[in-house]
Design goal:
This protein has about 190 residues and is mainly alpha-helical. It has a single domain, classed as Hypothetical protein, domain 2 (Endonuclease III, domain 1, Orthogonal Bundle). The chain has 10 helices and 2 strands. Strands 1-2 form a two-stranded parallel sheet. The radius of gyration is 17 Å and the shape is globular. The relative contact order is 0.17. The model has no long low-confidence stretch (mean pLDDT about 95). Keywords: DNA damage, DNA repair, Hydrolase, Metal-binding, Zinc. One of its GO terms (biological process) is base-excision repair. InterPro entries: Adenine_glyco (IPR005019), DNA-3mA_glycosylase (IPR052891), DNA_glycosylase (IPR011257), Tag (IPR004597).
Length: about 190
């Protein structure tokens, strides 16, 4: 059996696949970065399991996270989203995706890409931590708290410090795989 982070020690294929191939893997594609920002915001107050089970529904409901389309959503479209049982039907969270799409497009214009902007918080290089146990992994950091302040200032919603840290983990800005996990970079180099 492969050693994984304790949170992924499950037989649920969605969780295992997410852990093994996405979590902690650097993402630079703007659309993927936007999708994860939206999904992390949707998670607020819920479990990641709730969101990952609905991820394909989110992609369908939100036009595969095409920010230009989302920024133009009408009240009629928003109402249909509030009635969509395939996603979390929280009015504020749904509205935040539209708000964030508009902020995302502004950032793309200003910085050339959202990737340039978001990765600047970690000097364009993933932070690789060396936690022995899952209990050591923080829920936020100075960087995620600062990122939260900046994102809010730049017009984003549902981007508190804890959400930002979770986002950083999800898009590989932070690698928090524990040392015994086969996905930790120190173990990957051993496998090669």
């Amino acid at each position: 059996m492969t050693d994984r982070c304790t949170w992924a020690a499950t037989k649920e294929p969605l969780y295992v696949e997410y852990h093994d191939y996405e979590w902690g893997v650097p993402v630079f594609n703007d659309r993927q970065l936007f999708e994860m920002l939206c999904l992390e915001g949707a998670q607020a107050g819920l479990s990641w399991w709730t969101i990952i089970q609905k991820r394909e529904n989110y992609r369908q409901a939100f036009d595969h996270f095409d920010a230009e389309k989302i920024a133009c959503y009408t009240e009629e479209k928003l109402q249909s989203l509030r009635e969509d049982t395939g996603i979390v039907r929280n009015k504020l969270k749904i509205q935040s995706v539209v708000t964030n799409a508009k902020a995302f497009l502004r950032i793309q214009k200003e910085y050339g890409s959202f990737s340039n902007y978001i990765w600047s918080f970690v000097d364009n290089k993933p932070i690789v931590n060396h936690w022995r146990t899952a209990k050591e992994v923080p829920v936020s950091s100075e960087i995620s708290d600062y990122m939260s302040i900046r994102l809010k200032k730049d017009g984003f919603k549902f981007v508190g410090g804890t959400i930002c840290y979770s986002y950083m983990q999800a898009v590989g800005m932070v690698n928090d795989h524990t040392l015994e996990c086969f996905c930790h970079p120190s173990n990957i180099s051993v496998q090669k």
